[in-house]
Amino acid sequence: MMRLVARLITICALAIIASVATSSMALAEPKHVVFLHSYGQNFKPWSEYSRALRQELERKSRWPLDLQDFSVITARSGNENAERQFTDYLGALYAHRAPDLIVAFGAPAGDFVQRQRSRLFPSTPMVMTAIDQRRVQESALTENDSVVAVRQDIPLLFANILKVLPGTNTVAVLIGNSPNERFWLGEMQKELEPLKDRVKFLFLNDLSFEDMLKQAASLPPNSAIWWNQPQVDATGEVQDDERALKALHAVAKAPIFSYDDAFFGGEIVGGPMTSVADGARTTSEVALRILEGEKPASIKTPVLKYGPAKYDWRQLQRWGISQSRLPAGSQIYFQAPTTWELYRWQIMLVAAVILTQAVLISVLIFERQRRHFAEVQARQRSAELAHINRYSMAGELTASIAHEINQPLGSILANIEAAQLLIRSSTPDMNEIKEILADIRRDDERASEVIQRLRSLLKKAPFELRNIDLNQSARETVEFLSALAIARRVVLDSAISSVPLPIRGDRIQLQQVIVNLVVNAMDAMSHAPSEGRKITIHTARNENCAEISVTDAGPGIQLPDLEDVFEPFFSTKPQGMGMGLSIARTIVEAHNGRIWAENQARSGAVFRIQLPLAAD
Fold first, then answer.
1. 464-616 belongs to which homologous superfamily?
2. pLDDT digits (tens, 9 = 90+) for 75-89
3. Engineering a disulfide at 173: which of 118, 226, 376, 540 sits with its beta carbon 3.0 to 4.6 angstroms away?
């Protein structure tokens, strides 16, 4: 009993394995599909439908596919003898195994299959696609036939031309002279009859393709061209690739329109058109249902309609067609992207950088204005402080100034008294009187110079750079301080250079600096013996600078104080304010110069000033 059960299990397992293997072999066996082309594999629009359908089937099919392409060459002339030979050829080719499906592209291929149905694979399913509904022979359809048809709305297609180009008065129709094209020529002439009063139609079917190009190149203004793919021209020449449309586009003097988007994408303006993608997708669904075993006649497919009108932006630009004239819902392709669309992130980055720079520049300008305002305020305060310092210095010079003025005034008084005595005499000496008057004039000028120097020192004037000679300013300062030096028993040794020292500066302020340094030197030597009190004012040229130094014979400056003597409110004098040297440094720096102090080897200190020489 156990052996019998084991044998039954083994037999069942083998049967299952055999069934699975047979099923796998059946699934692995390719499906043979024949593509029949109306004129050839390169004829648009059917070549585009064939290519798209092939891609759809290979993508969706669960079987391997063996796709074979054949062209119904008899469609060009309608030669019945050649058609029979072509039928015999296909019958012999598939004598051992009929194809699983026939797909006929276009009316000529569909007509061929329907005419030869009894002799050519009568039981093989067929799908007619990329064919106008008017070209299908409904009475000749069998239960093995299915149709994926379109219907060209000729009045709508030509109405689109007149809508986007309302001034059109001539339309050249490029169409060939094959049997299929003669059918469409008759259809267009019939359906366009209502427009004849408005538009002149030039049907070029009776010309060679070269003559068609010449006509297109010589069209009058306000013309349009209708491209119907001249498959076979009047001379029998076949136009089986894209070069024909490109040649037309190269010479055309008017915009080109067509009926199928297989021609769209370079030369055609656009409009309502049948869709290759929609046709291929629908046909692939029908073909796969048939391969699954469904009866072709039971598959009813509605006539495919136009999708939204589509237009080529490049052609709209070329022919100056406004987008406002396009039908509502139109789709525009190949539109050149705007600069913003191309470089949006770059523009945003640059804008951000520019904005950042603008903010920084604004901040810098604001800070610069604030700094400039602060500098102006500081300069004004410094000038006021310097002016106050000059008044303070004038107070210290009061005694010497009074002495220097009293001398010429006393001399003037004595000369006047002498002149009065001479005038009272009976024989006045006129020569003596002239000499007295000359002395009075000289003493008056001397007093005037003293007062003028004092007024210059005390005058409150804005900081003003002028071309001056540092040597001359030093000389005037020495003369001004000579009386004070005599009063303080100080020897002023003037070592002024004989070489001119031209600089750009404010004469009054530079003289104030020299006065401050000389008076400070006098104060430093106030406790020194009278015979040792000596101040030397020396000028010289040092490379590109003019240099002036004030050297005294005092005790010098303490080493820790050398760096601090120019700081505000620092003073070594018991009653000093500590502003003189600070003001001196401010004035020198305003002249782009520098000032510093040194101790001499034996005794005394020296203050040096360097100022840039003026350009020649």
1. Histidine kinase-like ATPase, C-terminal domain (3.30.565.10)
2. 566 677 888 888 888
3. 226
